[in-house]
Design a protein that fits this description.
By secondary structure, the protein is α+β, with helices and mostly antiparallel strands. It has helices at 26-29, 38-42, 45-53, 86-92, 164-170, 174-177, 192-195, 224-232; strands spanning 2-6, 13-17, 22-25, 60-62, 68-69, 78-82, 101-104, 110-111, 126-127, 130-136, 152-159, 162-163, 183-184, 189-191, 202-207, 210-216, 242-244, 266-271, 275-280. Strands 1, 2, 3, 4, 5, 6, 7, 10, 11, 14 and 17 form an eleven-stranded mixed β-sheet that branches.
Length: 282
């Protein structure tokens, strides 16, 4: 399934994108499906959607021209991975991590897959980073690698937009990565049955039509089952939480000359089977 949240910003409705380019209105069919949030995932929400798809009197709307919001409603936390691709680590500081480097992004940074990325006043050194994001489907505490994937609801695209100057000046990552609008998410949450092996997916990013990143998720240093096990050993992952698994090499700030976000640009990031984001820069 491809889960979407559609409608005006701040007033999205939960739905499922169908093969005929229509959206199943989940709330219109089941009033208790309020949103795609932690409660939904923890209470067998995916199974409820599968049942709705089999009903004869499905309520749908055409998807054409409908705004899609982020496919997850305000997760409890966004856990991010730093330097989880060797080529990105090389262009960053050449040091490969011995264990996963964790940081977080502010949940208030989340916007939809076509919403504007708004540069802070005076920001001139802002990067885009395409990342495969894992959506947790049920609470995970001390999970083994063997059982890790059973705690996953699906996958989506996360753009880890980063103000490099704020990152350097602050000598930490949260401020430079947590700005409002610096976390485009979506367009879909795609369930495991439609993604296949997530490490076989290809990630791509473009600015002004120029390809910057083009890599396979197989190049991750720490793979998804290990990450879920590692994180959940000390931090409970709750239903609806997001893990951003890191970005491959090719970022604009590492290029000569640098390729950085400018007002008027369009940023395009995509991952096989998970769709494409196209965000204007304002």
């Amino acid at each position: 399934m491809k889960l979407v949240r559609f409608g005006p910003a701040g007033n999205e409705r939960p739905g499922v994108l169908l093969d005929n380019n229509h959206i199943l209105d989940a709330r219109g069919m089941a009033f208790d499906i309020d949103d795609f949030n932690g409660h939904f995932f923890a209470k067998q929400g995916l199974q409820r959607l599968q049942a709705l798809l089999k009903e004869s009197g499905r309520k749908t709307i055409p998807a054409e021209g409908v705004r899609l919001g982020p496919p997850v409603a305000r997760p409890g936390k966004i856990v991010c991975l730093g330097k989880n691709y060797a080529d990105h680590a090389a262009e960053f500081d050449a040091q490969l991590p011995d264990s996963p480097i964790l940081f977080s992004k502010a949940v208030t940074a989340i916007v939809g897959p076509s919403d504007p990325i708004i540069l802070p006043p005076g920001a001139t050194d802002v990067d885009t980073e395409v990342e495969l994001a894992v959506v947790i489907g049920r609470n995970a505490k001390n999970v083994s690698e063997k059982d890790a994937m059973s705690h996953v609801a699906g996958f989506t695209i996360l753009n880890d937009v980063t103000d490099r100057k704020a990152q350097r000046d602050g000598k930490q990552w949260f401020r430079g990565k947590g700005c409002d609008t610096f976390c485009p998410l979506g367009p879909y949450l795609v369930t495991l049955d439609e993604t296949g092996d997530p490490h076989a997916l290809r990630l791509l990013s473009k600015i002004r039509g120029q390809i910057l990143q083009n890599a396979s998720a197989s190049q991750m240093i720490f793979k998804i089952p290990y990450l879920i096990s590692f994180i959940s050993a000390t931090i409970t992952l709750e239903a609806g939480d997001i893990i951003a698994t890191g970005t491959p090499g090719g970022i604009g700030s590492a290029r000569k000359p640098p390729v950085l976000l400018q007002r008027g640009d369009e940023v395009e990031v995509s991952i096989d089977r998970l769709g494409t984001q196209r965000n204007p820069v304002a």
